[in-house]
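QA checklist item 7 of 12: single-chain prediction sanity check.
[x] sequence parsed
[x] length recorded as 413
[x] structure emitted
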Amino acid sequence: MTMLAVGLAAALDPSKSVRQYVSKSFTVADGLPQPWVQAIAQTPDGYMWFGTQEGLSRFNGEQFTNFDKGNVAEINHNNIRVLLPDKKEGALWIGTYGGGLTRYFDGKFRTYTVADGLPGDFVLALAWGSSGDLWIGTDKGLVIYAKGRIVPFKWPGENTASPVSDLAAGTDGTMWFLVRNAIYQADKQGNISRIAATVPEPQKIYADRSGSLWIGTMNHGVYKWVNGKIISYSVAARLPKAPVRVLYEDSGGKMWVAAYGVALCRLGADEKFDCYYAKDGPMELSIVSMDEDHEGNLWLGTEANGMICLRDTNFVTYNKRVGFSDSYVLGIYEGRNGDIWTGGRQGLNRIRNGNITAAMVIYGWAQNTVSSCCAATKWSVLIPPVTGWQQTPFMRCCVTMKAHYGLVTVTAG
């Protein structure tokens, strides 16, 4: 058996594009009980846990062990909606959609239902309070589990039997909860108030380590609520218009957003999003859950194709997905200032400090193959192509480019 690492490692390298990480998919063929992975968590012992609509799955790095109501008497329903590890005790709390709340510890399961004090057996959200108490959002209200007892939580101005679909715990003891389209804040003093009332159609909430609350909407982008001020991120920040199903901050402090079915995006230091789209490769984008493991890998649960492990690598790939003119590299040259120049079938590419600039050598030509690059000593003037060259598969002419690319010589054809 190969256990996953339990020591905390660095997050995915933020200097790389989201499109440059390596992804590996795990599906039913690999041992998952069902392809819809709607919850992910890692327990302190290193195991990865996945909640599907057909049971709970534990992964040790090599194989899956599945638990459901067919082989575990304490599991009342196979639809596993939410997972929350107890990092102090090493237990795992399991919220089911119809079977109450289950605790797994030391190989044993214990389930709590309406008979034990839950207002409803559909558990929609879980979060840890500042004093170590467990907040539980259900289809019929919010309760707190502390010292072996389940206590109802009530708030003014709302039917307290309403569904609580999401919870977010702040580092200062604040707890936020989402009730239909309203977001409430409960501070450590017990004061409860509605916040961010102007945010349209909130669907997800997430508290980052700086104390900000992130709000994902149905089709209006993402909002950040900071000390009563609201910052909006939408198309202008390169975030595509799509339902936001997941918000997640990695161990490096970078915020990730899953725009359902359209893109996986990460917010950069420039306050713009870098995204992986369907056109960038085969990775499934119906992402509904996300978690980072102790090695810094990012796990993505999808509705259609199991889960994906996104990991870093010592190799960096440059191709059309990350901005090259195409994915063919026919010539490479390093300039005196450290720039890397490559030639391909659709022109010239420059890599400078990790940033890519692509250009066609001669605009309007049907052929723009660059087969080699070298340093230039003088500026050359490009003369019109010789008659018949456009019909020749591999034209040969010496071109010197200047402009903002620096001074290089390429053989184009």
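[x] summary fact logged: Residues 377-413 have pLDDT under 50 and may be disordered.
[ ] second reviewer sign-off
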